[in-house]
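[audit] Reproducing an earlier prediction to check determinism. Same input, same settings, fresh worker. If the C-alpha cells differ from the archived copy the diff job will pick it up downstream; this log only records the rerun itself.
[audit] input (651 residues):
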Amino acid sequence: MATITVAKSAGFCFGVDRAVKLCYKALDQYHAVATLGPIIHNQNVVDDLTKRGARIVDSVETLHPGECVVIRSHGVSASVYDALRRMGNPYVDATCPFVAKIHKIVEAHTKAGDYVLIAGDPHHPEVEAIVGHCGDNCFVFESEMELNHFFQKKLVDPQKKLAIVAQTTYNILVWEKCLEALPKDNPNIMVYNTICRATQVRQSDADKLSRKSDIMIIVGGRHSSNTVKLYHVCNRNCSSYHIENSDELYTLDLGDAERIGITAGASTPAHIIKEVQRTMTEIMENNNVEEDINFEEALDQSIKKIHKGEKVKGTVYSLNNTGAYVDLGTKHTGYVPLSELTDDPSKKPADVVSEGEELDLIVTNFNDQDGIVTLSKKKVDEMKGFEEIIQAKEAGTVLEGTVNASVKGGVIITYAGVRVFIPASQSGLPRGAETDSLVKTKQRFVILEVNEHRRRAVGSIKAVLKAEKDAAREAFWETAEVGKTYTGEVKSLTSYGAFVDLGGIDGMVHISELSWKRIKHPSEVVKVGDYIEVYIKELDKENNRISLGYKKQEDNPWEKFKANYKIGDVIPVTIVSITPFGAFAQIIDGVDGLIHISQLADKRVENVKDIVSVGDVVDVKIIDIDIENKRISISMRALLEDDDVAEEDEE
C-alpha cells in the first residue's frame, strides 16, 4: 500500500486568507461588490464569491457608482488608488501586508532618486503593482541571466544607488543565484529579501518532501505563480503533477509509486487539499483491489453481449476532435461521437468529458462484425433531465439555462439535455422584439407544460420575471419611507422626468428635481443605464406611485449664494439673456440676478442692447436680495454713482 504524505506548510497563506475573508465581509456590508481581478488564483473560491454577488472587473473605470471594490492581495499601482479617490467609490484594501511593505520600500527609493530592480514575473499582477509604485524608475528581471545582462549593458549609471526587491512568491533557489550574480562590495546596492516567509517555508518543505517521494502532486490554480514555482521545485527531484482539483487525479499515471507527496499553493483552500488526499487514498486502495479481481469474472465481463437501447457504463480512455473512446469492460470498442456528447457546436469532446471519467451511456448502434458499439451520453442526460423537468413543473421550481437558439415563435433553452421551448409571448421581451437578443444569454424560467410522450416541455421566462418583480415590489413597500435613499438604474426618460428602477419597482424623478438649474430635458443630467442615488419624496401605495428626489440640498446654488454674498458686494457677472426691461446675468452657476434697465447706466437707456450683449462680463453691485422669492437685483449704475461720489470727494 502506497504512503501519502501532505506537506506541513501546504495551502492558504496569511495574505490570501486575509483577502478572501475581507471579500466575504465586504459582501455582507455593501449592496454591490466587485473585485479588481480574481481575488486569488483559485477558480473554486472565485466561483463561490461570484455566486454570492461579487463581480470581477478589469479596471476601476468599469465600476458602478457606489460599488465597493476589493483590492486583492497582489496589490495595485499608485494610480489605481488615485482613480478610486477621484471616483469616490468605497474600497477594501486586501493587499497582503508583505506586498504593501515592498510598495513602501520602492516608493521611498524612487523619491530619493534611486533605481529599483525587481525580481519576478513582469506579467504577474503583484509585480505590475510594484512597478506602479516606481514609475519608469525600475527594471524587472526573471532570472540571473537577465540580471547579468542589466549590469553588463550598464542600463543605468553605475554611480546610481540601486534597491533590489523580489516578488513575494519568487523562487528561492533562483533568488540565491541572483544574489551571487550581483557585483561584489558595491556600496550603492541595497538588497531587500522580500520573499514571503511562508513562501520560503512552503518551497523548502516541498523540496524536502519531493526528495523522499516517487511522485509529487502540487495542487493550485493554473495561473498561480507560487504554485507553478512549487511544481518546478518538486519536479527537479521526482515526477511531479500540477492539478487544480481532485478530479484531475484520475488522469494521472501513478505507475508503481509507493511514496506520494502532496503540497499546495498559497491560494488553495484546505478543503481542496483534503479532497485530493482522500481521493488519492481511494485511488490507491482501488488499484490494490483491482489486482485481486477474479480472472473468470473478468473473462465473463469481456464476452458480455451488448444490445441496442441498453444502458451501460463506460470509462473514457481516449479523446479526439470527433468523439470519445470508452472502455465498456467488454471485448467491444465503445465510441461516443461528438454529436452524442453535446448539442453545443462550439465545444470539442475534451470540453465535455475527460480521460478517466466514468459515464452512463445508451447503446445507439452495434456492429458485431467490427466490434464497435456506438453510444450516446446525450440520451442519458435527456432521460435524467426530463425527470428533473417533470419534478420542476410539479414543484414550480425555477430553473436556469442558456438560450441556444432562436426559432419561429420563440427560443430554445436546453436544460439537462432537454430542449425547452419558450414562446415569444413568454420570453419577457416587449411585443415585437427580436428574440435573437436572448441567444447565448442565461435565463431563469419555470415549466408551464410537459409532453411526456414526445419528451417536450414549454417554459416561461416572463413568469419568473413577474414573480420576482411582484416580490421585489412587496418587499419595497414593506420598508419604503419618505426620505430613504436608494441607488437605482435609470430605465427611461420622458420630457417631464426620469424613471428609475429601485430594484423591481420604478419611481420617477420629476425634471424639476433633477437639477437646481433650469433644464429643458432630463437627458441634460442623466442617461438611460446610469446608476444614480435618489431619495423618496412622496409615496402613493394605492396608485403604486413613487416620487423621487435627486438634487441634494448641499448642492443648492442659492445656499452657496447666501453663504458667500451680501448686499453691497461688487462682483463680476456674465450676461445670459436680454429682455425689454433689463438684462439677466449669471452670478454663480444656477443663480441669476436682474439688472433693471434703469440700473444699466447713469443716463436714460432706450434699448438694453445698446449697453450690454449676451456673453459680456461686467462688474455690478448687489443692491437687493430676496432669497425667499429667489430674486436678486444688481446694478451697473450704482458703480458709476460710486465713482462720481469718489471724484467729488477728491475734488
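[audit] rerun output stored. Observation attached for the diff report: Residues 289-303 have pLDDT under 50 and may be disordered.
[audit] end
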